[in-house]
């Protein structure tokens, strides 16, 4: 009895495996793009956070300037009143108010200097972060373009692979094709695997001796009694 010829079946499986691999890559592409877009969003958020820190300090500085101006106005008003009062205790009270207000102004000015220093530091951090992060964003955007171009290429390759599968199917003997299609419905590829050391090349479990003999002699199609895959002997 002539040994069973599985070459056409294996050729079909090779084309089908390529088709499946391309489909998986295409399915993964949107997730990869989404992950890169998330990184872009994170980089942009980091830029905005650095800018927000700087702007918050600028706002604080403006508030201090308002406080200083208001206090200076009070001090000026007290000095004007000093010129108008006649009583010594009123003069002393106004002097005390002026000194208190000037101390307040001094405190505001000291805080303003600290804020101005912090603004300079925040500007430096923002400039450094913006330069680095925008460079990162440009790299991410380039990767997205590459992924989308790759997606277009994969679509073309998938059409070729599907055509190759369609062309390979008619050459496979009907009994083999029927078994192949039945097993291919189950998760896990490939359908046809070698048997090595008495174990199935798919599930790696021990196969009965008679199955191994069938695979070795090629007298008929041998299938693993555990996973159902077609097992064959690789000489």
How does this structure look, described?
- This protein has 235 residues and is mainly α.
- The protein has four helices and four strands.
- It has a four-stranded mixed beta sheet with strand order 2-1-4-3.
- α1 (7-84) runs antiparallel to α2 (88-168).
- The longest helix is centred in the middle third of the chain and has 81 residues, at 88-168.
- It starts with 6 loop residues before the first helix and ends with a strand.
Brief overview:
This protein is mainly alpha-helical and 235 residues long. It has helices at residues 7-84, 88-168, 174-184, 209-217, and strands at 192-196, 199-200, 222-223, 230-232. A hairpin with a 6-residue loop joins strand 3 and strand 4 (230-232).
Protein topology:
Layout: H1 7-84, H2 88-168, H3 174-184, E1 192-196, E2 199-200, H4 209-217, E3 222-223, E4 230-232
Parallel strand pairs: 1-4
Antiparallel strand pairs: 1-2, 3-4
Which percent range describes the beta-strand content?
A: 5-15%
- Helix and strand string, N-terminal first? HHHEEHEE
Q: Count the beta strands.
A: 4
Q: Unreliable segments (pLDDT under 50, ≥5 consecutive)?
A: none
Overall 3D form: rod-shaped
Radius of gyration, rounded? 40 Å
What class would the helix/strand composition place it in? mainly alpha
Q: What can be said about the biggest beta sheet?
A: 4 strands, mixed
Report the average pLDDT across residues. 91
Q: Give the termini distance in whole angstroms.
A: 18 Å
Give the strand order of the largest sheet, numbering strands 1, 2, ... along the chain.
2-1-4-3
**How many helical stretches?**
4
Helix content: over 70%
